[in-house]
Amino acid sequence: MTQLFAVRMDVALPPDMDPAERADLLAREKAYSQQWQRSGHWPQIHRCVGEYANLSIFAVEGNEQLHEILWGLPLFPYMTMTITPLAVHPSDIAHS
């Protein structure tokens, strides 16, 4: 059974990070996240306006799969995350 999670990811890269290292890290992050988006396990990603942060929705088989995906993020060591399990709202017309 698929479980939904909202994950807010705040990124704080070191200001003195080597520009080439930063570019490589960001390219790897983009490729990794797009792989999971294509799989259907990361159906939504939204930029938090004015912040180096995003709010993403994950559709996974459970906590372990979410943990695996998040720990695999190349930017993981530079992130603070807030994870919220989601449930269908009884007033959601798409699910009534």
From TrEMBL:
Taxonomic superkingdom: Bacteria
InterPro entries xrefs: MLI_dom, Muconolactone_d_Isoase
Pfam families linked: MIase
Record key words, sorted: Aromatic hydrocarbons catabolism, Isomerase
Reaction catalysed by this enzyme: (S)-muconolactone = (4,5-dihydro-5-oxofuran-2-yl)-acetate
Domain called Muconolactone isomerase: residue spans: 4-92
Entry EC no(s): 5.3.3.4
Pathway note: Aromatic compound metabolism; beta-ketoadipate pathway; 5-oxo-4,5-dihydro-2-furylacetate from catechol: step 3/3
Stretches of the chain forming a coiled coil according to its record: none
Family stated for the protein in its record: Belongs to the muconolactone Delta-isomerase family.
Name by which UniProt lists this protein: Muconolactone Delta-isomerase
Species for this entry: Pseudonocardia abyssalis
